[in-house]
Design brief:
mainly alpha; two-stranded antiparallel sheet; 2 strands
Length: 145
């Protein structure tokens, strides 16, 4: 690729290296956690999450009982429908947080990822995330170099 001018050759070499590194970074950013390094790391995270979920359920029961004892001075107060409903709603919300914590976290990260991608790409591009693959729908996208 020698042009005969060492300055031009050095600049071309630097730009090629820069574009290669940017392509690697973009590939890392757009790779879903399930597909990164064959999914091995993600499987470890899921297993740890399942173990923490068991601990979360145990703590949920413990703190639910502590909250009921703290909220109600006697069992007669727990017989009131509004107090029972309040405790039931607290328990359901805490159980949902423990049960669907991983799904809520990954959903939040996907939304943040789409926001970051939308900031990087021009506003004219339509960006969709379909099963971990980034698809840009635009007419006449011109390469920078």
């Amino acid at each position: 690729m020698g042009s005969g001018n060492w300055i031009v050759d050095n600049l071309n070499s630097a730009l090629e290296m820069w574009n290669g590194r940017l392509a690697e970074i973009w590939q890392l950013i757009t790779t879903s956690p399930e597909n990164f390094k064959g999914g091995g790391i993600w499987n470890v995270i899921v297993n740890i999450s399942d173990g923490l979920k068991a601990v979360g359920y145990a703590l949920l029961v413990l703190f639910f009982v502590m909250g009921v004892v703290k909220t109600c001075g006697s069992f007669a107060e727990m017989k009131k429908p509004e107090m029972a409903f309040k405790c039931f709603i607290r328990f359901v919300l805490a159980q949902a947080a423990v049960s669907w914590g991983m799904e809520l976290m990954t959903g939040a990260f996907r939304v943040m990822f789409l926001r970051c991608v939308a900031m990087v790409l021009s506003e004219q591009d339509a960006v969709f995330l379909i099963e971990g693959e980034l698809i840009k729908l635009a007419e006449g996208i011109q390469p920078i170099i």
